Amino acid sequence: MYKHDVLIIGGGLAGLRAAVEVTRAGGDVAVISKVHPVRSHSNAAQGGINAPLTDRGDDWEGHAYDTIKGSDFLADQDAVEVMSVEAGDAVLELERMGVIFSRGDDGKLGTRRFGGQKIARTFFVGAITGSAILHVLFEQALKLGLNVYEEWFVTKLIIEDGRCRGVVAIDLKTGEIHTIKAKAVIMAAGGAGRVFEPSTNALICTGDGLALAYQAGAPLMDMEMIQYHPTTLARTGILMSEAARGEGAHLLNADGERFMEKTAPDYMELASRDVVSRAEQTEIDEGRGIDGNVLLDLRHLGRDFIEQRLGYLQEVSVEFLGIDMAEQPVPVQPGMHYIMGGIKTDIDGATNVPGLYAAGECANVSVHGANRLGANSLLDTVVFGRRSAVHAIEYIKSVDDHSASEEELASEQVRLQALLDRPKGERVATLRNDMARGMTRGIGVFRDQSSMEGALENLENVKSRMSGFSIENKGKIFNTDLMFGLELEFMVDCAEAVVAGALTRKESRGAHFRTDITERDDDNWLKHTLVYKDETQEHGTRVETSDVKITQWQPVKRVY
Amino acid sequence: MQANLKVKRFDPADEGGKTWWQEYKVDVHPDSTVLDSLIQIREQDDGTLALRCACRASICGSCGMKVNGDAKLVCKTRVVDIAPNGEQLVIEPMGNQHVIRDLVVSLDTFFSQIQRVDPFLQPDHVPEQGEYIASNDSMENLLTSMNCIMCGCCVSDCTVLEVDANFIGPAALAKAWRFTEDPRDSKRDERLKVLNDEAGGIWDCTRCLKCVEVCPKGVAPMDRIMELRESAIEAGNTNTPGYHHTESFYNSVKKNGRLDETRLAMDSAGWTNIPRLLDLVPIGIAAMRKGKLPPLIPHKSEDHKKVKDLYDNVEGESS
Question: How much is the ipTM here?
Answer without folding.
Answer: 0.95
